[in-house]
Amino acid sequence: MSDGFPVLPDIACQYERYDPKTLKPINESTYVRLIETGWNTDTFKSKSVLDIGCNSGMLSIFAHNLGASRVKGIDVMDPFIDFFSKVVTQHKLPTQVEKKPFWKLETKTDGADVVLCMEVLHWIVQQGGTLPEAIAHLAQLTGETLFVETPWDVKEPSIASRANYPTENYGIEMIIRELARHFADVRIERFMTYFGNMPGSKRVLIRASGKRVSSLTVRYIRNASLTGISMSRLTAHFIAAWGELSVHCNSAPHVACHPRL
């Protein structure tokens, strides 16, 4: 620990890096990612939040800064749990940090108004889960709004580089179709560019809301689009949340993310 603050784990994703003392991003990838979410106070004000696969806790902190009333970050990797728990304690954040696998999450104890499944869904499938099962589980945990950030297709390096990845069981069309079984409003918010230093990487942010009372079996309907397209960008709410932020871009090579379910 430095000056009483924990040291960011070396295995933290390049887009999850911040100063544990100031809670501000320390590189371009992290800063750009936060901007590109398009999240503002309307998204989180007075809402409970579940951050699945919280990594260093950057998105949990962001949700708190944007007005979330209660935040819970979960991960399965001890270095992240230890680091983020210490950050929460040092800053007295209204945030709970817990080591818990995805499939062990329960609606009664872990469910929230807003659920973040950011860069996690493709790991769930890679480790043996299926899209229908994973999305149904996410829907159960979601009170109002679910955010899913994921590779656009199986040619994306995070998937293509994995040996024996079940590529036939993953794809954007499948994801949207499964989300539509559980949510009335499923839309692609935007493509994310913070992965720009990784050739071929295509990330997309999806928002699902209007949870159906009972899951609707949606079959493929020809010539029908299930999504709305939004391309909103930086808002005044973001600036208010972070203040005058000085970004210090480092030139360190990309740190690969580890599966964290």
Short overview:
The chain is an alpha/beta fold. Helices cover 30% and strands 20% of the residues. It is built from 10 helices and 7 strands.
Account of the protein in words:
This protein has 261 residues and is an alpha/beta fold. It contains ten helices and seven strands. It has a single domain (14-242), classed as 3-Layer(aba) Sandwich (Rossmann fold). The protein has helices spanning 28-37, 41-44, 58-65, 78-91, 107-110, 121-126, 131-141, 157-160, 172-182, 236-242, and strands spanning 48-52, 70-75, 95-99, 112-118, 142-151, 183-192, 203-211. The longest helix is centred in the N-terminal third of the chain and has 14 residues, at 78-91. Mean pLDDT is 83; it is low at 216-234 and 244-256.
Q: Could you give the distance between the termini?
A: 26 Å
Helix content: 25-40%
CATH topology (fold) name: Rossmann fold
The total tally of domains equals 1
Corresponding CATH superfamily:
Vaccinia Virus protein VP39
Biggest pleated sheet:
7 strands, mixed
Average pLDDT across residues?
Answer: 83
Strand content: 15-25%
Shape: globular
Question: Based on helices, strands and strand pairing, what is the structural class?
Answer: alpha/beta
Order of strands in the sheet with the most strands?
A: 3-2-1-4-5-7-6
Low-confidence stretches: 216-234, 244-256
- Figure out the total of helices: 10
What is the tally of beta strands? 7
- How would you spell out the order of helices and strands? HHEHEHEHEHHEHHEEH
CATH architecture: 3-Layer(aba) Sandwich
Q: Please write the CATH class name.
A: Alpha Beta
- Any idea what the radius of gyration is? 18 Å
